[in-house]
Amino acid sequence: MTDPRDRWDDDALLDAIRAGEESAFSELVARYELGMLKMAEAFLGDRISAEEVVQETWLAFVKAIRRFKHRSSVKTWLFGILLNQARKQAARRPKEWTLRGQAPREDATGSSDWFDEVGEWRSQPVAWGSNPELDLLSQEAIEYIYEAIASLPEKQRAVFILSAIEGWTPEEVCELMKISSTNRRVLLHLAKSRLQQRLDEYFGKRRKSPPASGSEDPKP
């Protein structure tokens, strides 16, 4: 039998949580936790830190729930808490910390073959960690892509994750980030330009790499 809470909107769930209904909280977690984890992992670049941030977000959510004034959607508020927690986590890292020691070049510009004009993948190179049967190369590519995203400047990173990975509408992104529509477009363009360069470098190197040690050349 279908739980009627499955049809409740987020505001109704929030009211039920305030009234002490644990099942309502479980339903809200079921709706958003996977997306929260994906966003945190893309923002920070590793799964363990992402899981910590999601836990911290739910704790902060519970503490602040009675102060929520419905000036934004529950979803926007929840992901705003997540973004703040992810920023705190990133700030605690050593200043010299970089992903694979690689930082994006400051002058990355130009058109993108990987992304369309709104920041969506034209042809997503790999699934976002959803396929356990991906081969080793694909797994390495996934890790590289996450690291490349996590190395973006903070605002570019957040706008790209929300737009291209989470599929938020431009209006939702602007509301959460408190930026104008023009700023969103600029940040998204800069993000995809930087990622374009990083992906081109990575896959270009893969194409030029020599055969693995011990492999045999195919016989004519």
Structural class: mainly alpha
Compute the number of helices.
8
Number of strands: 0
Using only C-alpha atoms, the radius of gyration works out to 20 Å
* Uncertain ranges: 96-114, 123-136
Overall number of domains? 2
Biggest sheet layout: none
CATH hierarchy, class of the largest domain = Mainly Alpha
CATH superfamily of the largest domain: Winged helix-like DNA-binding domain superfamily/Winged helix DNA-binding domain
Shape: globular
Mean pLDDT over all positions: 77
| Named CATH topology of the largest domain | Arc Repressor Mutant, subunit A
Give the CATH architecture of the largest domain. Orthogonal Bundle
Q: Helix content range of the residues, please?
A: 55-70%
Order of helices and strands: HHHHHHHH
How far apart the termini lie comes to 63 Å
Strand content: under 5%
Describe this protein's structure.
This protein is mostly helical. It folds into two domains: 8-94, RNA polymerase sigma factor, region 2, helix turn helix motif (Rna Polymerase Sigma Factor, Chain: A, Orthogonal Bundle); 105-209, Orthogonal Bundle (Arc Repressor Mutant, subunit A). 60% of the residues lie in helices and 0% in strands. The chain has helices at 10-18, 22-44, 47-64, 74-91, 136-150, 154-165, 170-177, 181-208. The protein is globular. The N and C termini lie far apart (63 Å). The model is unreliable at 96-114 and 123-136 (pLDDT under 50).
